[in-house]
Amino acid sequence: MATTTTSTAASGGSSRAKSLSRREAMTAYLFISPYLITAAIFTVGLLAYAFYISFTDLSATFASKNAKFVGLDNYIRAFTDKDFLAALGNAFWYFVIVTIIQTIGAILLAVLLNAKLQGMRVFRTLLYSPSVASSIVMSLIFLWLYLPTGFINFFLGTDIAWLTTPNRIFAPFWSAIGLGETIPTFLQGPSVAWVAIMVLAIFTTIPTFMVMFLTALQDVPGYVYEAAAIDGATGARAFWYITLPLLRPVIALVVILGTIGTFQVFDQVAILTKGGPLKTTLTPAYLIYTKTLGTGTQAEAGFGAAMAFILAFVIVAITLIQRRLIEQD
To answer: Among 41, 81, 205, 280, which one is least packed by beta carbons within 10 Å?
Structure first.
């Protein structure tokens, strides 16, 4: 009899607990329902619509009633479009140069600021300040700096038109060994104007990643370095064999975030060069924008959507490869 009573009480308690859990879950979903509805409409819904129009010849963003289904024509055209291929080539050089330099620079600055020296808080604030300003503001500042009569030319004693020079930076090297006319344009490197925009990107992104590395460094227990010092690992050896391996997860995160950012460059190009000179600073994001809305060209929303999904696939593929290479044992 006692066993039966105990089982009944346990069953009743379990039912009440499940009922309470369901009510709490419903209350939680009720509170987050505005976000879920907004995300469903403006994220999932728009992605589905963009994927649909990528298979049509839609020429205006919302006039879909006259759009015709064209299958994979937009995707096939993207792989043969000179502007899109040029934009991917520019994005590749941007990805290689900017990602490497900003990651290495952020690590070195983080190690420097992690030193137990007086006044480091002031230096941290000063070094992080470029990331506080918006990219539009920083782009305008660099626009003034890059003027032929700007501070950079004044400091260097030159009159280089940094943002209107399409010359490739590796072209003199190929010419010096007699291969200047036989090397494809892509292998001649980024243009002077593109490098100028890269400098702007590196200057504004290093501080953000520096903070990530600095936080990770401060979480490393001191006894790890003490034990390494007993074994003779100090200075550069401790940095190479202790610090870098412990920073591997953060390095993976920074590289992935940097990669995504480099393939989505838009505002700097829109303000400084608008894809010129000679399309040497044209990026996939800016090209998709101009093709979709018809800025300076005919509106081709279907073609722009196809390029956007190709770009997304490229970003995901590179991200997965990076994660596999960085996080492998």
So the answer is: 41
**Mean pLDDT of the residues in the chain:** 85
Instruction: Mention every residue, 6+ apart, whose C-beta is less than 8 A from residue 187.
Output: 170, 174
- 259 with 95: CB under 8 angstroms? yes
Considering the entire predicted model, what is its pTM?
A: 0.84
The rounded Cα 137 to chain-centroid distance in angstroms is: 19
Per residue in 22-72, pLDDT (tens digit) is: 888 888 888 888 888 888 888 888 889 889 999 998 886 555 567 788 889
- Token match 């920074």: residue? 254
- In the chain, domain spans: 14-73, 81-327
Q: How far apart are CA 298 and CA 285, in angstroms?
A: 17
Residue owning tokens 């100028």: 196
Secondary element (H or E) of residue 50: helix 46-53
CB burial readout 29-40, b (16+ within 10 A) else e: eeeeeeeeeeee
Of 196, 203, 206, 202, the residue nearest 271 (C-alpha): 196
Torsion of CA 169, 175, 179, 182, to 10 degrees: 60
**What is the distance between the alpha carbons of residues 246 and 258, in angstroms, rounded to a whole number?**
20
Q: What is the DSSP letter of 42?
A: I
CA distances from 168 to 89, 113, 198 (A): 13, 36, 14
Task: Report whether CATH 3.40.50.1970 matches the domain 81-327.
Answer: no
**How many residues can be counted in the chain?**
329
Tokens of 329: 């044992």
Coil, helix or strand for 117?
coil
